[in-house]
Amino acid sequence: MNAAPDEVRLVRALRLRNQGLVPGAGRWAAVPEVARGMVALQAQDPRAVLHALSLRCAGHPTEASVAAEFDAARVVRNRPSRGTLQVTASEEMHWLSALMTPRSNAAAVKRRSTIGVTDAMVEAVGEVMRSELEGGRVRTRPELVAACAEAGIALDGARAGTSCGTTPRS
């Protein structure tokens, strides 16, 4: 049975409203509220996610204002699901990662041998990462990969994702 055209239009309108994309119906007063309300936004393109957050926020803050929310760690980037870069409110990152990471990690562990990643390599990467992130320091993925290279652990794209994403935490 096909939905009637009016029902399809209603569903589309409700979806746009719930995504915070209907002018005048903005539910979120600040960027972290947008991230919290959306749970997570795909964020492979850094400039596009700044725009997506601003578009959904009352007053449509500037790119610089949205970027300041990242600098203040009120919103964060994370890869909880299959390596997909997402943005969420910082206080939501922990439960979102706990929910989504185990499945991604299990798949990555299965893939390790096909790309030449050993348990010893993962442990060594973990040591470098713990050192680099000690005291709450923030590092980008390229910075972590560079730190691994300085420690003698060469990580190409596939190895970086598999090794950094499944590193044991202590």
Summarize the structure.
Helices cover 55% and strands 9% of the residues. With 170 residues, the chain is mainly alpha-helical.
> Quick one: how many beta strands?
3
For the biggest β-sheet, the strand order reads: 1-3-2
Mean pLDDT: 83
> What is the rounded Rg?
19 Å
Calculate the terminal CA-CA distance, rounded to whole Å: 54 Å
- What number of domains? 2
Query: H/E series, N to C?
Result: HHEHHEEHHHH
What proportion of the residues is helical, as a percent range? 55-70%
In DSSP terms, counting alpha (H) and pi (I) runs of 4 or more, how many helices? 8
Residue runs with pLDDT of under 50 for 5 or more positions: none
Q: Globular, elongated, flat, extended or rod-shaped: what is the shape?
A: globular
What fraction of the residues are assigned to beta strands by DSSP?
Answer: 5-15%
- Coarse structural class: mainly alpha
- Can you summarize the main beta sheet? 3 strands, antiparallel
